[in-house]
Fold each of these.
Amino acid sequence: MTSEYDLVVVGGGPAGATAATAVALRGHRVLLLERDTFPRYQIGESLLPATVHGLCRLLGVADEVARAGFTPKRGGTMRWGRDPEPWRFSFSMTPRLPEPTATAFQVERSRFDEILLRNAERVGVEVREGSPVRRVLSVGGRVRGVEYTDRDGTARTAQGRYVIDASGNTSRIHSQVGGARVYSEFFRNLAVFGYYAGGRRLPEPDSGNIFCAAFDAGWLWYIPLRDDLTSVGAVIAPEHLAAVQRDPRGAWQDMIKACPEVDRLLTDVPLATEPPYDRIRVRKDYSYGKTSLWVPGMALAGDSACFVDPVLSSGVHLATYGALLAARAVNSALDGSVPEERGFAEFEARYRREYGVFHEFLIAFYDMERGEDSYFWSAKKVTRVDLDEAAAFAELAGGLVSGDASVLAAERGAAAAELDEAVGRLADGTERGNPLLSTRIVADTFRTGNDLEEQALYGGPLDAPAAAGSLTVAADGLSWLRP
Ligand code: FAD
C-alpha cells in the first residue's frame, strides 16, 4: 500500500516531533513513523531555556510542559576546573532571560517526549508508532519516501515530497545524506549511567540545578528528576571501556565513590528499582557530525545529524532547533516562497553554526587547568555576543546564541509587554519625556541600526544570527521569507 505526504518524518523524539509539528502547523500533510511505542526511555534529561520557553512555546506545548510537574532548573553547579570549590551559573546571568524565563526543566524524557509527540498528533500529524523505517526510496537522484514495517509486520511504503530523518543516534538511514558519520577526534568519552531512588539536593535556590563534578577519571552528572529519583552518570575516558563492559554497575558505583562531592549526596540512598530506571546503561561514540545535512528531498535533524558531549546539556536544544530549521526549509519549498536549495542551505548554515559554537566552546571547557572566569571568557570569545563574559556563558548554556526569535520567544513576549506598558504611559501622560526610549524593543532597534551603519562603514561582522545575505524568518517562525 502506498500513501503520499508533503513530509515524512522518521523518529518521534524531540527532533521528529518538532519538525512534524512545525510543518503540520502550516497545514501540510505530515506522516511521522516511530519505531517504538511511546512512552519510551531516552537519556538527555536536562533541558535549556531555549527549548522550554522558545521551541515549546512555538510548538504550542509550553503550558502543558510547565504544568507537567518537572523539576525547575535555574542553572548549573560545577565542581569543574582548577577551583576546588563548586561554582555556579544561572540562566538569569543574561539580560535576555528575564524572570520567570530564566529557567528550564529536568525531565523524565519518556514523559517530555510523549507530550511533544501527542501535541504533534493534535495539530494534525499522522503518527504511527511501532513502525520502524527500513530504507529510503529514491527516484532519479531525489528522495521520494521510505519503506517501513507497520504494527502488523506488513512492509509498506510512504511517499513524501520531503523526508526528515530524526531517528536519533541509532538511525539506519542517515548515510543517505553525507555518507558515514564523522566522529570527533577530541570527544571520545563514554558514558555509564543509572538512577537512585532519591538523593540529597543542593541548597536553595540551586536545588534543581544540574550538578557536574569532575574527578580523576572524568566527570559525573547529578540531575534531580523527582524527590525520589536522581539521574547519575559518569562520562569517562575510553580506556575505561573494558572495565565498564565487564561490570557496568560495579564500574558506575566505583566512579561515584571516586567523586566525594557526589558520593556525599547519595550516602544511604537506595538504587532505583522501578522500570525503566532499574538498569545501568552505557553509551559511547556519541560525538559526531556529518559532511552534509541534506540532499534533494531529504534532511537530517537531531542526533541523526550530530551530537556533541553532554556537559552543557545541549542535545535536545540542538535537536529541536535543528529540526525547526529543517521544517522552515520544507515549509518554504512547499509554499514556493524560497527555492529548495536556498532554504536547505540556510538550514545547514544555521545548524552548523549552532553546533560549532558548542563544539568550539566545549574544547576549551575540557581544559581543567582553568577557572570559572576563564571559562566565561571563552564563552564570550566563542559566542561573540555583545554582553559581559558571565552573561555570554549564560547565553551559551541557555541555548540563546543564535539570537533566533524562536529560541527567544519569551524575551520577545516580555519586551513586547514592556513596550505596551510604555505606550500606555505615553498615552495617559503619566511620564515626562518619552518612555518608549527606555524600552528594549526601541533600544534594540537603535542598536541594530547602529550595527548596520557600522557594517556599511567598516564591513565588520554583525552579531546577528546569520551571515549577511542570509534569509530572514517569517513572523510565525515556521519558514524563511522570500529573499
Ligand atoms: P531521539 O530522542 O533518540 O529520538 C529518536 C527516535 O527515533 C526514537 O524515539 C527512536 O525510537 C526512533 N527511531 C529510531 N530508529 C527508527 C526507525 N528506523 N524508524 C522509526 N523510528 C526510529 N541532551 C540534553 O538536552 N540534555 C542532557 O542532559 C543530555 N544528556 C545526555 C547524556 C548522554 C550520555 C548522551 C549520550 C546524550 C545526552 N543528551 C542530552 C543528548 C540527547 O539524548 C539527544 O540529543 C536527544 O535525545 C536527541 O533527540 P532526537 O529526537 O534527535 O533523538
Amino acid sequence: MNNLTILVPAYNEEAVLQQLYDRLTNVIENIPFYKFEILFVNDGSKDNTLSIIKKMRENDNRISYINLSRNFGKETAMIAGLDYAKGDAVIILDADLQDPPELIPEMIRYWEMGYDDIYAKRKSRSGETWFKKWSSSAFYRLLQKMTRIPIQKNTGDFRLLDRRCVEALKQLRETQRYTKGMFSWIGYNKKEILFDRDPRAAGETKWNYLKLTDLAIEGITSFTTTPLRLSALSGVVISFFAFIYMIWIIVKTLVSGEPVPGYPSLMTVILFLGGIQLISLGIIGEYLGRIFNETKNRPLYFIDEYNNEKESNQSSAS
Ligand code: UDP
Ligand code: MG
C-alpha cells in the first residue's frame, strides 16, 4: 500500500484546525488504497495550536507532528516537514483551508498517471484586495523577465510532490528559502490543475506587506543575479553618456572659453550618479548579506518535539 503524507505548516491556527481536520479526513476517507499520514509542523505558534494537534493525535493515529523550537516562517516549516515526511508522495496544504483538500483525489489521479509535481493554480483569489492581486502579478512578471526558469503564476505551495521531488528539495539547504522558485528549479514532470481559492476559513493571515516585500526580494535575489548585471549595465550606459557630455564641455570651453557657470548641470550629474551608486551598492549588499547568511552554514531549524518525543537535535537533518 502506498503512503501519502499531507504536510500542514501551522502557525497560530487554533481557530481553523478542527475545521481543517474534519474536511481533510472527510476527503481522505474516500480515497481507497492509500495510507495517509497527516504531518503538522507547528511553527512556534503562540496559541493552542500545538495542544489541539496533540489532542487530535490521541484520537487519530494518522496524525503526527513536529514542533519547531520557535517560529521559523512557512518556508522553513515546509522543509522541516519534507525532512520528516514518510510518504511516497507529499501533499503540502495550508492550514487555513485556502487550499481546498477536495482537490487531493485529482492530484493523486495525476500522480498515478506518472506526474511528479501536481500543483494547484488559482483561477480566482477571493478575499484579497485588488492591490495584493496587482502587486503579486507585477512581481511575477518582473521575476519571470529576470530568470530563465519558468515561475508559475498564481500558484502557491499547494501541490503533490513525488518522493523524487521531495528528495531533490531536501538537497537544497539554503537558509533563505524561496520555495516557490525551488519547485520550478528542480524540474521533473509537472502538471497544473485549476481551482478557485477561497478566503481564509478563520483566523488571520500571517502576511503583511513588509513580509511580502521581503519574500519578493528573496525571490529575486535567490534566483537570479540579473540585478547585479543591470547595475553594471547602467554603469556602462551612464559612463558612455557622461563621456560624450565631457567631450561636449571640453569643446565648448575651448571654443567659447566659458568660465565658471554650470552649477545646475554639475549638481544634476552628481546627484544622479550618487543615486545610481547607492542603488548599486544596495543591490550588492543584498547579495552579500545572503552570502553571509549561507556561509554560516547553520542548520535550517531545530525540532523541539516529534510525535511526543523530545528531540535532541544532535544528528537531526542539517
Ligand atoms: N505559516 C507558518 N509559519 C509562519 C506563517 C505562516 O507555518 O510564520 C503557515 C500558516 O499557518 C498557513 C500557511 O503557512 O498554514 C499560509 O499562511 P497564511 O494563510 O497566513 O498566508 P496567506 O494564505 O495569506 O498567503
Ligand atoms: Mg492563507
